[in-house]
Amino acid sequence: MKKQTSHKRYLRLQKYVKFTEAPIGNKEEVNTILSKSSFASFLPTSLSPKTLNEVVDFTSEHKKVVLKPVWGCQGVGILIIEKKNEAYIIHKDEASFPSTSLLVYLADVNIDEYILQQFVVSETTNGLPVDFRIHTQKDSEGKFVLTKVYPRIASVKNKVTNYSQGGTTVDIQSYLEPKYKEDWKVVLQSMKVFALQLSEFLDEKYHQSLNELGIDIGLTEDRKIYLYEVNWRPGVPIIFNGELNHAKSLLSYCKYRSKSLS
């Protein structure tokens, strides 16, 4: 008897088990779905390059870009590329490499496994890169609610913000209030509304099968939201009661799903 593949086992189990989550596509697929929706205006200008010349042309147009793996996670493998006059600076991890030719530097990269985006300036008052993770989950009624919103701050300029890459965080109010003064609640509310609407939209696209999402956004000086990416199995936020909130929502949703079994 042939050994079943993981996919076959998954399909077989679906007949008997109520799964609480389902995967969404990779960065390129999600980007394509959103680019044809009302969320298109929240996307950085992006390109799924097929040749290195496309990377060169895109970088020449936008001057500073982000090249990241389509299936990447935790900020691994991300490159930030700047064009300065006729030369380039490539930022990787905490190091920077000058290059006179992107074609030479990226010669060994399987470029069709990457997505290219314009660099969005989302910074702290000290000029460090910052993005915001918005964690959403379904509740006891099968509706999306907010689990947690928190900023992720890079340790140095031109570096990704992920914890695995040395990023840090603070309580959302502690970050927003000093920067936006009396408007901090308005800024936070705009993030929450955006995340919940996006979660509901993707849930419909994936046939109401999603349970939780980790939505990463940038916020420019003029308060414009840019969507970086959506994660279907986000790491549980271990700070500010994140784990507790996550567990409560997960148990409530499992109870909701169990009703359909009776």
- Strand order of the main beta sheet, please? 1-6-2-3-4-5
Tell me the name of the CATH homologous superfamily of the largest domain.
ATP-grasp fold, B domain
Q: Which CATH C-level class of the largest domain is it?
A: Alpha Beta
Largest sheet: 6 strands, antiparallel
Q: Which blocks of ≥5 consecutive residues have pLDDT under 50?
A: none
Query: Can you count the beta strands?
Result: 10
CATH architecture of the largest domain: 2-Layer Sandwich
Question: What structural class should be given to the helix and strand makeup?
Answer: alpha+beta
If helices are DSSP runs of H or I spanning 4 or more residues, what is the number of helices? 7
| Apparent shape | globular
The domain tally reads 2
Tell me the Rg in angstroms.
20 Å
Task: Estimate the helix proportion, in percent.
Answer: 25-40%
Please indicate the percent range of residues in DSSP E strands (runs of 2 or more): 15-25%
End-to-end separation in angstroms reads 35 Å
Q: Name the average pLDDT.
A: 85
